[in-house]
Write a structure and sequence with these properties.
The chain is α+β, with helices and mostly antiparallel strands. It has two domains: 74 residues, Sandwich (Immunoglobulin-like); 128 residues, Pathogenesis-related Protein p14a (3-Layer(aba) Sandwich). The protein has a four-stranded mixed sheet, with no helix packed on it. Strands 9-12-13-11 form a four-stranded mixed sheet. The longest helix has 23 residues. It is elongated and about 90 Å long.
Length: 271
C-alpha cells in the first residue's frame, strides 16, 4: 500500500511539473492577433480612418511605401491619410496586442476633363436680351476682418504645404461672398442662408457665375485666426475642405457682435 501510495504521489508530482512547464513554454503564450484589410485610393485623395470598438490609443506605423502617403493623427483612434504618390503602402494600426495591417493601393489621380467651370445656373432660352444680374450690396469689411483673412490664409497654406498641396490665393469676389455669409451667421448659424437658399447662392450675388468646385467652413466663438483654424483642422469635414486639392482660392469673412457667441467666421473655397 505504501509503495502504491508513493507511486501515486510521484505521478501527481510529475503531472504538476509538466503542467507548470507547459505554462512556461514561450510558444504557448497567446500571440497578437493581426487583421489585414485593403484600401484603394487615388493620388491627392484624403481619407479619414477610424479604429472602432477599442478604448486604447492607436499607434500608427508605416511599414512600407513611407514616401507615398502622409499621416495626420486625429485624436486617439483616428488618422487622416493623404495619398501623395502612386504605388502600394502597408500601414499598421496597433492597439495593445491587436494589430491591423492595411494594404493601401494608390492609383493615379483622376483627370479633370479640361477643368471647364460648371455653370451655377443655366438660363432658359429667350429671344429677349438677358438683363445683367443684380449684385448684392457690398458688405463693409473692417480692417480687422481684412487682416484676419490674410492670417487665416497664411495658416491654411502652412497646413496645405505640410500635406504637399499647392497654396491657395485670395479672390476679391470670394472675399466679399464670405463677408456676406459671416454677417448672415448672426441670424442663422447654418450652411443654409436666412432666405432658405444654399450658401453657394451667394456667388451669383457677387458676380461669380460658374465654378468647378466649392466649399464652405463656418465657426463661431473663436477669437483669433489661430483658434478658428485649429478648430477647423480638428474637425474631419472642415479639415477635408482645407486640405482639398480641388480648390485654388479662399475667402474669409469675420463678424463681431456683442450678442450670442460674439465672433462669427465664414470661410469659402472656390475654383
Amino acid at each position: 500500500m505504501r509503495k502504491e501510495s508513493k507511486m501515486k504521489r510521484t505521478a501527481a508530482l510529475l503531472l504538476t511539473l509538466a503542467l507548470v512547464l507547459s505554462v512556461l513554454t514561450p510558444g504557448s503564450a497567446a500571440e497578437a492577433k493581426t487583421v489585414k484589410k485593403n484600401i484603394s485610393m487615388r493620388v491627392r485623395e484624403l481619407k479619414h480612418l477610424t479604429i472602432k470598438n477599442t478604448k486604447k490609443r492607436v499607434v500608427w506605423k508605416k511599414l512600407s511605401g513611407k514616401n507615398k502617403i502622409h499621416l495626420y493623427k486625429d485624436g486617439k483612434r483616428a488618422v487622416f491619410i493623404l495619398a501623395k504618390k502612386k504605388g502600394t503602402v502597408r500601414l499598421q494600426a496597433k492597439m495593445g496586442k491587436k494589430k491591423i495591417v492595411y494594404k493601401i493601393t494608390i492609383k493615379e489621380a483622376l483627370l479633370v476633363p479640361d477643368e471647364t467651370p460648371i455653370p451655377i445656373s443655366t438660363p432658359a432660352p429667350t429671344s429677349e436680351p438677358t438683363p445683367e444680374p443684380t449684385l448684392a450690396p457690398q458688405v463693409t469689411v473692417t480692417e480687422e476682418a481684412a487682416n484676419y483673412e490674410k492670417e487665416v490664409l497664411r495658416l491654411v497654406n502652412v497646413e496645405r504645404s505640410k500635406a504637399g498641396l499647392s497654396e491657395l490665393s485670395l479672390y476679391s469676389k470670394l472675399s466679399q461672398a464670405s463677408a456676406i455669409r459671416a454677417n448672415e451667421l448672426l441670424e442663422s448659424f447654418s450652411h443654409t442662408r436666412p432666405s432658405g437658399e444654399k450658401c453657394f447662392s451667394v456667388f451669383k450675388e457677387v458676380g461669380i457665375n460658374s465654378y468647378y468646385a466649392c466649399g464652405e467652413n463656418i465657426a463661431m466663438g473663436q477669437k483669433t485666426p489661430e483658434q478658428v483654424v485649429d478648430a477647423w483642422m480638428n474637425s474631419p469635414g472642415h479639415r477635408a475642405n482645407i486640405l482639398s486639392w480641388k480648390y485654388r482660392y479662399m475667402g474669409l469673412g469675420f463678424c463681431k457682435t456683442d450678442q450670442g457667441m460674439k465672433y462669427y467666421w465664414a470661410q469659402m473655397f472656390w475654383s
